[in-house]
Amino acid sequence: MLAGSVTAPPAQAAPAAPAAPLVWKACGSITYPTLQCASLKVPLDHAHPSGRQITLALTRVPHTAQTSQGPLLVNPGGPGGSGLTLAGYVASALPKPVAAQYDVIGFDPRGVGRSSPALDCAPGHFKTVRPDSVPASAVLEQTNLARAASFATACGRKYADVLPYMDTVSAVRDMDAIRQALGAPRISYFGYSYGTYLGAVYAKLYPQRVRRLVLDSIVDPTGVWYKDNLGQDYAFNNRHRALMAWIARNDSTYHLGKDPAKIEAAWYAMRAALAKKPADGAVGATELEDTFIPGGYYDGYWPDLAQALAAYVREKNTKPLMAAYEKFGAVDASGDNGYSVYAAVQCRDTSWPTSWKRWRTDTWAVYRKAPFMAWNNAWYNAPCAFWPTSKSEPVSIANTQLPPALLFQATNDAATPYPGGVTVHRLLARSSLVVEDGGGNHGITLSDNTCLDTYLAAYLNDGTVPHGAGVADAVCKKSPDPKPRAMKAASTASRGSTLHDLLGYRR
Questions:
Q1: Start and end of every AB hydrolase-1 domain (predicted)?
Q2: Catalytic (active site) residue 161
């Protein structure tokens, strides 16, 4: 059943159990020195508030202005993304006079990171070298299918008591417990990616408790989650081709020619070669896809990926490829946790096809037009075909009770394609949509686009929203393309140095 077809039953919007006051302790870093940490116990099952309790990890950057606008909860997406550091990033990236008015609150949703219990269904599930994602033979298909089923089985065996309560609505109930613990009658909310769905569902269940609502890179609620993932496949294929075109435009640096189609063919030739002989015994065809998929989220990663491709094609030099894999594709314990939560939430949120024939037919149909991520994405989500819990019904986010909300969407976003932003704009009465025309990044505010950030700052400062005559209420030019980097120059970017390193990307 698709989102938008049902409305959450009234019981889901019942008040959360009373929460104890939070005890904040300094936990700042060199980058975010004023960050504070706390923990909050919430019911595992909000329908039984006196039953088993779990723990949420929280962070805060306190307001410094004389007058406070209250809490601003922030979420990086996922599901499975940690929001603890994001609080520091948002507080430092907003204009100081605006940030000073808010207590910026980060949190690890249930199951994530420093919250407890933190899920890790099958440690090492993404260890190399994995089977080729494209099931060119029945043996490959069955091997990948067995991996997906075994992951679901491992989750069910390890977390049988937790999985029935790993879903978006439960996370939303946790958010309202945070609000209560903060002693705030209302909260403001700022979410990216999956965080937009989390925020929209919160606004549906608790409209009277929303002060301001910012959604950036917006999930289409009418497609959660099977349909949305198929839509991603086409969009990521387009972004991969945009990378090939960027490499062609920078032929003086990468020397792979000026024809994007030929560069794309070279990429697929590299993929075929790595399927036969993985680079350094670690990066095969599937790991190559994992490495390049983040380039669909953020073009700031393109110089590293272009170096990796050019060095391999021209010199059979695998060092840049291995460096790119370690930076973008490798999955550590944190990634195992994030994927476990991703699967637990998405598989529980809604019904998925249980017939593998449906998955196979749909994915091959996509692959014929958009091969880059089709099968990789199918296997990423395939545990949902075997998930051991019952399924929830998605929440209709249609809402006429909210104050004005502010939405941001890039027209060429791959992870949350543009039509989703338009759909949510239509479903949220009095919302305003700001569009980055031609932009392809996922997560576009607080990422060096002054036009977008001006609208964000005005809204958080005094509630001002733009009003336009068309689908979009305001349009901003896209951020400039990244500059190429000399082939022998190493990347100076570090983890956590940009917004996009903090968002809940799959990698």
A1: 71-440
A2: no
